Amino acid sequence: MAVPVIDFSTLNGDKRGETMALLHEACQKWGCFLIENHEIEGKLLEKVKKEINSYYEENLKESFYKSEIAKSLEKKQNTCDIDWESSFFIWHRPTSNIRKTSNLSEELCKTMDEYIEKLVELAEKLSELMSENLGLEKEYIKKAFSGSDGPAMGTKVAKYPECPFPELVRGLREHTDAGGIILLLQDDKVPGLEFFKDGKWIEIPPSKNNAIFVNTGDQIEVLSNGLYKSVVHRVMPDKNGSRLSIASFYNPVGEAIISPAPKLLYPSNYCYGDYLELYGKTKFGEKAPRFESIKNKANGHY
After folding, report:
1. CB 34 within 8 A of CB 213
2. Is the pTM of this model over 0.90?
């Protein structure tokens, strides 16, 4: 099975309807997809990856292989509750802490700031397209995620180092993501990312041509009333390569109140007799208007 690929260059032409349908299906049936032609310059993405890789080599690699994680794996001790990864987290929105992160150069900070500015635009575009596909107002997801300064944005920078015993450990254990829309700039050579679909683990290949890999988190599942699923995924370590992962999270702010979009909910707390009365008048019509009508009545709208 191939992961769906969304070509953003088709969203303004004759193929828009087809592309929107593909995005809707990807969100419903996969919970993940690739975005091509997203208009973030390849030169910028390559610079981000190069500088993060250099930072890891200079500041994190040696300490990782001296860590308790590495020692426990060498001794072949119980590794079921550890992750074979070297990572750190940066907040960008509502406020940034990137310049408080240890040993990050000013050049790397500037590059990440430029990248995130473009990525926020892409995340907001995605949130609008998802809202449209769900039949909601264009800014529904953005507003649901927002505080006074808009949604939150943070990045988990991770390296999954070469692993001497990959059969004994996970790079990152099985999980769903807690937040909203996750945009991943990943390694173009070393594999390892896997998603669980239809009872099987599907390998996600390294991203070519700087495609952005996207998956939806738990809050999108809640907002969509289960129409869009967050999906279980993991990272498998590699014996011969060190995998780069730059995962940015377009999330609700901490104080955001999350609930399913009322428009997507089935009617509830209604009198069955009222439903039967309406059914008698509309039996041979579509059921969706009937559900909407009984929902409005149960909510006291008429």
Report:
1. yes
2. yes
